[in-house]
Amino acid sequence: MNKKINDRLFGLCLLLGSFSCAWADLTLTDNSTLIGHWKLESVAASLTKPKTEENRDWEFRADGVIVTSGYNRHFKTEDRHEWKYHILDGKIVADDPGRPGRTIDYSVYKMEGNELILKGGLEGFYFFKKQ
Length: 131
Fold this sequence. Notes:
Layout: H1 2-19, E1 36-44, E2 52-60, E3 65-72, E4 77-88, E5 91-95, E6 103-112, E7 115-120, E8 124-130
Antiparallel strand pairs: 1-2, 1-8, 2-3, 3-4, 4-5, 5-6, 6-7, 7-8
């Protein structure tokens, strides 16, 4: 009797597993889909953790420069920063501001319509809307 229950549970797990889906990081071939202004609305350490509200503009320029501007919650003031980025192995590799020679990597977790979620960096997940 126990073997029948185990077989049924195993079959059920296989069936449910075949219907589940998970997000996979998207591989960028170039920066063309990133170009433009994106409003950073929130950040979170993981997809299941609470989000921290943000209100910053990130501009990805075609010339390989990121410009961030708006209220910086860490410094509690408005600011503006520029640094270089490029696409390498499908990911965004950006200079680390204030740390010459170091980079911060981001992968595109989701890009759909006007929504962009980046994974990596210092915060974990970055939630954007296209401007």
